[in-house]
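Board notes (copied after class):
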Amino acid sequence: MTLAISMAEPRSRIAARGRWRWPETVFWLALAACYVIFPGHLQLLAQVMIAGLFALSLDLLLGFCGIASMGHAAFFGIGAYAAARLALAGWSEPLTGLVFAGAVAGLCGFACSFLIGRLRSIALLMVTMAIGLLLHEAANRLTWLTGGDDGLSGYDVAPVLGLFRFDLYGRTAFLYCLGVGFLVFLALRRFVHSPFGLGLEALRENERRVPALGIAVQRQVAVVFTLSAVVAGIAGGLLAQVTQSVALEVLSFERSAGVLIMLVLGGAGHLYGALIGAAVFIVARDVLSGLDPVYWYFWLGLILAAVVLIGRGGLLGLARRLPGRFR
């Protein structure tokens, strides 16, 4: 009887962690309401959802596993090129194109995980950055595959589910990105609140003690790195389908640095922080570049510095601590 109670307690705690709460419902309803509230900015909102999905992929590594990456755009770009090449080959169905993009990026992530699992700290940052830069240069030279500086374009994407055609106003693009983002978010939410996800948090807190719990560190890293690459590839595939073009910039270091800034702004290790940080970064970049086309990076950096100095844990962490401070 005592053993049954002791086994039931951890299960109930895991179930409580994964229980859906009303602020989450409000968050997703607010995102869906943007379709009606901002009908003239649906293309921008679609870019926000793509960036949020990309930030979620990095949050799996950095926020839940403690693995920092400075070349995560490599898998984003691989997914984008895979979806574009599939469309150019004549297969323009968008959902299977996303599956293909995620699978190709996941295979590359799985291959890289054996190297990443053996590195930490500065060596990890340097190697991930080197992987990203090498892929960027390879894509620049392999013009027969990637188009080089000209990128890939001139392909069509079929209507979503055979019914909803992509338009210039971004109606289908926003709803498509929102639907895919929500489904991927649900899968990741279930994953991080599972016993395997708790093992990732243990790995983040103290890697040396994790083997004492019977957790295989290399296997954990391989699984989470592969899954992170799959999500990044899906985000890249979304970009290729929505814009119907792929530029060399999808593999750039600036994109890797940008997604890291999104996580810092929103708060790593919460999933929702990645989405919030992506929204703040994309909207702030769009507004600031319109107000000051030359020095808008300065103002964006000022916002980032203010968030880091004022609130630990990003905007989401600051929002969680404000009610307690007022009390």
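Comment from the instructor: The longest strand covers residues 152-153. The mean pLDDT is 83.
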